[in-house]
Amino acid sequence: MSNAQEAAAILVERRRTGAQGDRLPESCRPTNIDDALAIQAAVTERWCELMDDSIGGWKCLQPVGDKLIVGPIYTRTIDSVAPVALWPKLGTSDIARIEPELAFFFGQDLPAREQPYTPAEVDAAISRTHLALELINCRYNNPSDCAFPEMLADGLVNQGLFIGPQVDSELARNAGEFTLNVRQNGELSTHQAKHPNTHPRAPLYWLAEFLRSQGQGIVAGQAVIARLRPKLARVTGVSLFLSPVQDLRSGGRSANANFQYTLKSDNQADLKKWATRLAEAMKSQKSLIDVDSDQADNGVETFVTIDKQSASRLGVSTKDIDNALYNSFGQRQVATIYDELNQYHVIMEVPRWYAKSPEALNDVYVPAKGLPSPTAANPTGAPTSSSGTAANVAAPAVK
Questions:
Q1: 0.85 exceeded by the pTM?
Q2: What are the pLDDT digits (tens) for 35-81?
Q3: How far apart are CA 218 and CA 224, in angstroms?
Q4: Residues 6+ apart with CB under 8 A from 337
């Protein structure tokens, strides 16, 4: 086994399991760019053989000094359907690292050849452009202690790629700087995104030449990502699971992975207890990755009890009350906005700050039929930890 193959065996195992470890042993640690590229090639060969995979894309930037910014992205780690799996940041359990990208998809091959590729030839091979998120994970415990060749050998902290909506290719071609809006947990934040190479396609022109000089090429269907700034390095509470979309699938229901194990019980408490224990036991097995349970028992709940006699006297039906609550706290789609490339659903709901406690129900009104003014008590809610409280919901109009 060569030094490159020894290093590749370590990095592939960490990539496969999501583990992180010490720097590579000195016997196989890369000390220059050529060593790093040799290990990177060995990682690709070993990964593709073990995982029956292929190169589905590339990450790149124009070189900075003597540093080459290039690394393969494997097909199994590219997805466009949520949810996808994301390894947490080292030392945390709920913080993930992602970076916004422009992903350029190629509709034509750019095979290895003697003569260089012109920018016009590269442009002609691009079929479409998407916004994307690069999923970040490092295979080293302390990447700050590693020299650049070690990071290059590891694929420059790439874990995978999530493909987002398609964007206008001509606009993206010239979008060296633009505003990026990010919505997380209902909160909207605005960032100024700037491409490090100014011209978003400049790295593609460089990559086509670099791969050609290495006797490789770009294959139709591959995506090449060009990084945007700033990094979205801390995403709390994100749970993403990568799984390929299957034309035919088996199993009782859709899940976050290719395989599923379903538990059944007549006792809900026992089911919750043993499902959790089974999931934890499976996570401890190194041969299994992306183990997840679809239990979602930590959400906030409020019970609403309806005084049906008062509601009936006011001409208010249970459906009226249900609609008023869903209009306020659900996600009712009320319209669709269409443009040339995409469509956007318009959702009606109260502002998030009005839905942080059961007291928000005091501001929800249901139209009463045949009465000029409300005669019932204000609506109230009861959290799961307390007993239910009567909720008489009535008013002359929706507020």
A1: no
A2: 999 999 999 999 999 999 999 999 998 887 888 999 999 999 999 88
A3: 9
A4: 343, 344, 346
